[in-house]
Amino acid sequence: MTQVIEKKTLGKRECARIYKEADAAGSAAAEAAVPTPMIVGTPTTPLGNDIDFKKHGWTVKVAELLSMPSQKVRKWMMKWSPDLLEGSHQRK
User: Fold this and answer.
1) Which of 7, 28, 34, 63 pairs as cysteine with 70 (C-beta 3.0–4.6 A)?
2) For the stretch 25-46, what's the b/e string if a residue is b when 16 or more beta carbons lie within 10 angstroms of its beta carbon?
3) Cα gap 43→83, rounded to integer Å
4) 67: phi > 0 → left, psi -120 to 50 → alpha, else beta; which?
């Protein structure tokens, strides 16, 4: 035996109420969200031993020290200190 489901159309007021409710919930969630920055360490020099190159995000810290985009760090490191890249974290 199949069940017949009656279709109900929504009016403009009902749609507006649902929209306002969803908008308020989304705004409340956005205001309550606290972003967690990814911090690997507190490096003092790009070639020092205080950056863990095996952890994800090491390029961001080196980029801050070198004042360059993080996308360019790996190429810079390959040129100037390739030994530090051995065993470093890489994208998959």
Assistant:
1) 63
2) eeeeeeeeeeeeeeebeebeeb
3) 18
4) left
Measure the CA–CA gap between 4 and 49, rounded to whole angstroms.
70
Instruction: Name the amino acid, one letter, at 78.
Output: M
pLDDT confidence of residue 35: 77
Q: Environment class of residue 77 by beta-carbon count within 10 Å: exposed (0-12), middle (13-18) or buried (19+)?
A: buried
Q: What percent of the chain clears pLDDT 70, i.e. is strictly above it?
A: 77
Q: Cβ distance 77 to 68 under 8 Å?
A: no
Number of neighbours of residue 75 by Cβ within 10 angstroms: 10
Give the CA-trace dihedral at 65, 66, 70, 76, to 10 degrees.
-130
Q: What is the DSSP string of 44-72?
A: SSTTSTTS-TTSTTHHHHHHHHHTS-GGG
Average of per-residue pLDDT across 61-90: 79
